[in-house]
Specification:
With 244 residues, the chain is of the alpha/beta class. It folds into 2 domains: 36 residues, no CATH class; 182 residues, Rossmann fold. The protein is built from 8 helices and 7 strands. Strands 1, 2, 3, 6 and 7 form a 5-stranded parallel sheet that branches. Helix 8 links the parallel strand 6 and strand 7. The C terminus is likely disordered. The structure holds zinc ion (2 copies).
Length: 244
């Protein structure tokens, strides 16, 4: 091991991707947090697309992607790590999160069906202010782990409010209509390809679906999706009392 890497290991020991406690040696997750990684369970009835139990399925009616993989689901303690990467620029979390995304792709038999990796892009202004795009960082890391190329295939056509600022599903899907377009020079890369779309967090899958639709319109063969955290909104009960 290189001296600099060894020194870095002493000064900044690897930390668990979920609880952030120091790990004794090279590692991604502590034994106590292993249970938060979502493994598909073939013995239970699950949606064939998002792999969630049927009651929690996030897939809408008209889907443009084939499958969605996420290693962390719902209100897991891993949520904080994904938020820290997204909102607090903790880029050291990219590597372990991508590691578990790759595990999720493998466990759902998706890895072999990927020719090319891309990501859901931020709008240009936000990208410029932040200096990086965390979905792009995850996609690049996944490209290293899978040996597939990564390319920026999509861009945002107009400025719209961030999805996480909109509470209702209908606003989220309406907010996205026609929002993505292919990067002009990348058009030949899309046709006939099996593409993996990467994002950090998905809630209803609406962003993935709109981006997948754009790729399919421009000739992609199939689109798969992967995110670090799938955070479905709890289904609202009907006949709830209002005004409280
Ligand atoms: Zn832990
Ligand atoms: Zn589903």
């Amino acid at each position: 091991m290189k001296l600099t890497k060894r020194l870095a290991g002493i000064v900044f020991p690897p930390r668990c991707v979920v609880c952030r406690s120091p790990l004794p040696r090279d590692g991604m997750i502590c034994p106590g947090c292993e249970r938060y990684v979502n493994h598909p369970d073939p013995s239970r009835s699950r949606c064939a697309v998002c792999f969630l139990p049927q009651k929690e399925c996030v897939c809408g009616k008209k889907l443009y992607y084939e499958k969605l993989a996420a290693p962390f689901i719902g209100s897991t303690p891993a949520k904080q790590s994904v938020y820290d990467m997204k909102f607090r620029q903790k880029l050291d979390l990219v590597k372990p999160l991508a590691h578990f995304m790759k595990l999720a792709l493998d466990e759902r038999d998706m890895t072999d069906g990927i020719d090319l990796i891309t990501y859901i892009p931020m709008d240009r202004g936000r990208r410029f202010r932040k200096g990086f795009d965390h979905a792009e960082e995850l996609a690049k890391e996944l490209a290293k782990l899978t040996g597939r190329p990564c390319a920026a295939l999509l861009e945002r056509r107009q400025k719209v409010p961030p999805q996480h600022s909109l509470k209702k599903r209908i606003l989220r899907s309406g907010n996205l209509l026609g929002v993505f377009e292919p990067v002009g020079k990348r058009l030949p890369d899309i046709a006939g390809k099996r593409i993996l779309l990467v994002d950090d967090i998905a809630t209803t899958g609406a962003t993935f679906n709109e981006a997948a639709k754009t790729l399919m319109i421009f000739g992609a063969e199939t689109v798969y999706c992967a995110c670090a955290l799938l955070n479905p909104k709890p289904k609202q009960k009907k006949n709830r009392r209002r005004g409280r």
